[in-house]
Inverse folding.
């Protein structure tokens, strides 16, 4: 192979990495906001799985991936409403509720999905090269020859960063996550804030799941999310609850995912199961390192994370 | 107006009523799920009950499914008592199966059955304890979130198993699905009911449940576990070695999951394969909570879930109803259970609006 061939492989690999990263980027950003409000949603894996399934079914029958994507997002919002109700209104245990959602997701999709196994979408998302930008050598091919949902994620990240750090909404949100009693005293509605951002997180988890089956891998397979929801939760720690940093984590995971897939396709001597292990192993190592760094730098988890807020009636 | 206030005393009646109602609601949600796809839930539930208890064989098969669930849920109870969110029974189970299978497949074949099985049991315990020790050390020394570490280790364990089964551990004489060589009789746990797959593992499970109940209720170690579980910082000030106790507790938790894996390969399958059902590790989480973290109650809850899984396997074969219905019902039960714990800790009172 000559150099241009290598270049082509690397460009293809990285453009796949961006799409794979987008699947993870949405739920990671959503979970950052959910956790910032003090609610831990470990149901991401289940939400992504159900949304991926619903999006696939809708896209399959309507032959329109965008409708599938939107309905998939809504599905994520509805499931997270349930999580909100249990954790916020009923003061339920957040870890346990999230796990229940994830187990439910695998049961639900296995039950309803068995007739759709290995079916493909005839009409998945298409790429729209952005004029001029996509002509930039290498970078243009990797970042600006993608589908609309990837472009949407490019806009979402800075917008959410701005919202979190530069607006009143963001200040209130962070206040609720750091000290709910004080926020309540300041007149912020803790329950409403938590509901809002938990549902927002669910919508974005739904977006990630839906993008998986209408864009990145437009077919249905039992357990298609393969732990991406858990990896998103892990990447929230890596991001230090900052939407901008989450891009690095998501694209890193995307690159590993694309790489292991590419290596399998190319037929290396490395066993496929060993390659499949790499993203999880890397994520584990990443959360170990980040946790240690966070401790040294004294950057903390949102202090109210996982704690129900009980408004005492006076 | 409606007011929510904290209860001062937990009503004991609710602790029994809530799980039962949760189960009923779970079954109703399952029924609705079936009606949506035009499956008659009554026929399915009847088939599940028959599949679980309809004959002597069905009954023994239910016990076969119950066995790993007891070991796994009892192990998880240890972890949850110390407030360590071990979600890794899945991976610990796999490691237990791998460790014990290693000896069965590659160890000396001329040892007596008692010695071979003793070593395999120890290796099963060790495999699970080893896999649980990783998140335990990470949590206690570096504060690494154990939910994530145990979960990621599940995926890693599953891929290790796949790696071995598609690689050197695969029996070359098998074509198609990768299975290991069959274990010699010396490496098979004795069956305790003739003409069934019920094996010594069931006794291991019951003994483990009694033992863990004893440890938690009657020993100083058990008392320290509940203190640490309640408030680790207070425990530290009370002079408890939180790190040591946590690591030991979690290693015991993992060891029991590992033993469940050993029992599955040595007692039920007599070989190692990819389909050893590590998903029981997730079911066991639900069992542990439904049993209100009581090891003895978890024996009975495991039996109920064993029946459901056993019946669900049968209806998948005979009626083509996907096995997912079983985890759909299980998780619905779980939801209702968590939601209604609210009623245990709080009470809702209706009162006339008082003057401000």
């Amino acid at each position: 192979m000559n150099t241009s061939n290598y270049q082509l492989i690397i460009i293809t690999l990285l453009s796949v990495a961006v799409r794979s990263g987008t699947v993870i980027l949405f739920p990671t950003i959503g979970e950052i906001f959910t956790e910032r409000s003090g609610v831990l949603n470990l149901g991401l894996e289940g939400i992504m799985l159900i949304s991926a399934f619903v999006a696939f079914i809708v896209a399959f029958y309507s032959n329109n991936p965008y409708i599938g994507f939107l309905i998939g997002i809504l599905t994520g919002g509805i499931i997270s409403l349930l999580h909100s109700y249990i954790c916020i209104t009923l003061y339920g245990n957040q870890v346990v509720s999230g796990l229940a959602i994830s187990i439910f997701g695998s049961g639900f999709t296995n039950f309803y999905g068995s007739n759709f196994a290995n079916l493909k979408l005839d009409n998945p998302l298409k790429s729209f090269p952005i004029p001029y930008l996509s002509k930039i050598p290498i970078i243009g091919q990797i970042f600006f020859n993608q589908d609309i949902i990837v472009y949407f994620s490019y806009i979402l990240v800075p917008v959410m960063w701005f919202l979190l750090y530069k607006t009143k909404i963001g200040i209130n949100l962070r206040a609720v996550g750091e000290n709910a009693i004080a926020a309540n005293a300041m007149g912020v509605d803790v329950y409403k804030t938590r509901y809002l951002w938990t549902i927002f997180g669910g919508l974005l988890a739904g977006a990630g799941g839906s993008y998986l089956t209408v864009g990145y891998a437009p077919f249905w397979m039992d357990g298609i999310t393969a732990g991406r929801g858990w990896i998103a939760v892990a990447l929230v720690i890596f991001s230090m609850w900052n939407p901008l940093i989450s891009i690095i984590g998501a694209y890193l995971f995307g690159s590993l995912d694309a790489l292991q897939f590419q290596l399998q396709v190319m037929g290396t001597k490395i066993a496929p199961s060993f390659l499949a292990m790499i993203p999880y192993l890397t994520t584990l190592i990443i959360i170990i390192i980040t946790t240690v760094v966070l401790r040294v730098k004294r950057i903390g988890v949102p202090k109210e994370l996982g704690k129900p807020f009980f408004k005492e009636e006076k | 107006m409606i007011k929510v206030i904290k209860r001062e005393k937990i009503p004991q009646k609710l602790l029994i009523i809530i799980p039962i109602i949760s189960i009923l609601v779970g079954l109703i949600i399952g029924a609705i799920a079936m009606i949506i796809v035009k499956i008659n839930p009554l026929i399915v539930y009847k088939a599940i009950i028959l599949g679980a208890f309809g004959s002597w064989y069905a009954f023994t098969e239910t016990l076969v499914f119950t066995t790993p669930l007891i070991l796994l849920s009892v192990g998880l109870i240890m972890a949850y008592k110390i407030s360590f969110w071990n979600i890794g029974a899945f991976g610990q189970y796999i490691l237990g199966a791998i460790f014990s299978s290693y000896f069965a497949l590659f160890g000396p074949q001329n040892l007596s059955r008692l010695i071979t099985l003793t070593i395999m049991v120890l290796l099963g315990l060790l495999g699970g304890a080893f896999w649980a020790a990783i998140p335990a050390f990470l949590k206690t020394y570096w504060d690494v979130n154990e939910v994530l570490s145990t979960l990621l280790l599940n995926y890693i364990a599953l891929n290790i198993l796949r790696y071995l089964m598609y690689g050197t551990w695969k029996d070359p004489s098998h074509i198609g699905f990768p299975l290991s060589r069959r274990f010699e009789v010396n490496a098979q746990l004795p069956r305790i009911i003739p003409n069934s797959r019920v094996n010594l593992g069931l006794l291991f499970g019951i003994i483990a449940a009694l033992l863990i109940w004893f440890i938690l209720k009657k020993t100083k170690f058990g008392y320290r576990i509940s203190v640490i579980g309640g408030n680790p910082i207070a425990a530290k000030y009370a002079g408890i070695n939180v790190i040591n106790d946590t690591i030991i507790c979690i290693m015991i938790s993992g060891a029991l999951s590992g033993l469940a894996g050993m029992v599955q390969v040595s007692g039920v399958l007599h070989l190692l394969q990819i389909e050893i059902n590590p998903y029981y590790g997730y079911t066991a989480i639900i069992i542990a909570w439904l049993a209100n973290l009581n090891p003895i109650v978890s024996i009975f809850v495991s039996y109920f879930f064993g029946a459901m899984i056993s019946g669900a396997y049968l209806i998948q074969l005979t009626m083509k109803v996907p096995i997912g219905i079983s985890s759909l019902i299980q998780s619905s039960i779980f939801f209702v259970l968590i939601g209604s714990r609210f009623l245990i800790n709080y009470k809702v009172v209706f009162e006339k609006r008082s003057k401000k």
Q: What stands out?
A: The beta strands of chain B are 2-6, 346-350. The longest strand of chain B covers residues 2-6.
